[in-house]
Design goal:
Blueprint (H helix, E strand, L loop, with lengths): L3 E6 L9 E6 L8 H10 L1 H12 L11 E5 L7 E6 L10 H18 L3 E4 L11 H13 L7 E6 L2 H11 L1
Parallel strand pairs: 1-6, 2-4, 2-5, 5-6
Antiparallel strand pairs: 3-4
């Protein structure tokens, strides 16, 4: 059974869910956009967990399309699931890598026992993915991925992103 899809316009760091998905960079050590906001609001516990991951299995960082979980620190969630989206490229089809971000995040959520998960529009910010296409890939992938997650909440920062996702969910 596929999860209920809901849309929220606002700040993903304000959501109360089991897991918040972070559009991370491969270093796992924080960055700009959603990644920076999650690290700032979540506090040093998230960065400390990320550093432990880098010291272990993820010494070279997290590969594009993959996902891994840490504590959520001070966020109103149990976990942060970090996923590395692909940068958009006109001359190369990277849609499968973007879809993998959603599938792998849901796989990690299932392993954790998370029932509610908040996603940003992965790769649609500084990574340059066109919003309408990012929404299509996100919604289709979540709908077609077998998961025990009961609710997927797409938390969208602005009117344009919200409208793009709303058009796909309708």
């Amino acid at each position: 059974m596929s999860p209920t899809l809901t849309l929220v316009q606002g700040d993903i760091t304000q959501e109360s869910v089991d897991a918040i998905v972070n559009a991370a960079n491969s270093s796992l050590l924080g960055g700009g956009g959603v990644d920076g906001a999650i690290h700032r609001r979540g506090g040093p516990e998230i960065l400390a967990d990320c550093r432990r991951l880098r010291a272990g299995h993820y010494g070279k960082g997290l590969a594009t399309g993959q996902a891994v979980a840490t504590t959520a620190g001070r966020l109103d969630a149990r976990w942060v699931i970090h996923t590395v989206g692909p940068r958009y490229a006109r001359d190369e089809d990277r849609a499968e890598l973007l879809a993998s971000c959603y599938r792998q995040s849901l796989r990690v959520a299932d392993e954790l026992g998370a029932r509610t998960v908040a996603f940003p529009a992965v790769s649609a910010g500084i990574y340059g993915w066109p919003m309408e296409d990012a929404a299509r890939i996100a919604v289709e992938t979540v709908r077609n991925t077998e998961t025990a997650v009961e609710e997927v909440r797409f938390v969208l920062f602005d009117d344009r992103a919200y409208a793009a996702f709303a058009a796909r969910i309708a």
